[in-house]
Design a protein that fits this description.
seven-stranded mixed β-sheet; alpha/beta; 8 helices; 7 strands; about 200 residues; globular
């Protein structure tokens, strides 16, 4: 059996959040390092089957500033729309900027990408991991709101493994493609070819 912490996640705030996509319930969790993570949900209390779930890592440049270097902003918006359409699901918004390396290092990596390095080699050139994220706290957040099985919107097999290894059953992986453009094509190609993301070839 996998070994993972139980009930380490605690809800610190809970309120309704009206958005352009519909109304969500927003719950805030704080991890042991003091980072604040959010869980936006719809209809979980009425759920009788595995809800639709997206784990979204914070991306200030994409989510807030509309950067075209990545597909993060469109992915977040698409997940909010899909959860509302489904009528039951959740989005875990995790404070894991730059795949867990932080904003300062992420922008330093962007500068190296401007010189020709891809997204993976830029991290490695800074003596940082290609992906520093882990998903035990995501599993704890889901467990805290009564979810132990999901249908996961992701192109990243590590997220599927991360939940399963921490006690959450992933019944289905749903592709989550949004925001592809010429400016982020190389970024997505690197994630597919070098990081194992399940991204289909562009039509």
């Amino acid at each position: 059996m996998p070994q993972y912490p139980i009930h380490a996640a605690h809800i610190k705030a809970d309120a309704n959040l009206p958005t352009e996509y519909g109304n969500f319930r927003m719950r805030v969790f704080v991890d042991d390092a003091g980072a604040e993570h959010s869980l936006l949900s719809v209809g979980l209390d009425e759920s009788t089957s595995a809800p639709l779930v997206r784990i979204h890592s914070e991306c200030l440049t994409g989510d807030a500033f509309g950067s075209l270097k990545c597909d993060c902003g469109p992915q977040l918006k698409a997940s909010m729309a899909r959860v509302q359409e489904e009528g039951c699901g959740a989005i875990l918004y995790m404070r894991q900027e730059g795949r867990g390396i932080g904003l300062e290092a992420k922008i330093q990596a962007y500068a190296l990408q401007d010189l020709g390095l891809d997204t993976l080699d830029a991290n490695l050139a800074l003596n940082l991991p290609a992906d520093a994220r882990e998903y035990s706290f995501c599993a704890e957040m889901l467990t805290k709101v009564g979810v132990d099985e999901v249908r996961l919107m992701t192109n990243n097999p590590l997220k599927v493994h991360g939940l399963r290894s921490n006690g959450i059953a992933v019944h289905e992986r749903l592709p989550h493609i949004a925001g592809r453009c010429e400016l982020n094509d190389h970024y997505l190609s690197t994630k597919k070819k070098r990081m194992g993301h399940l991204i289909p070839e562009q039509a």
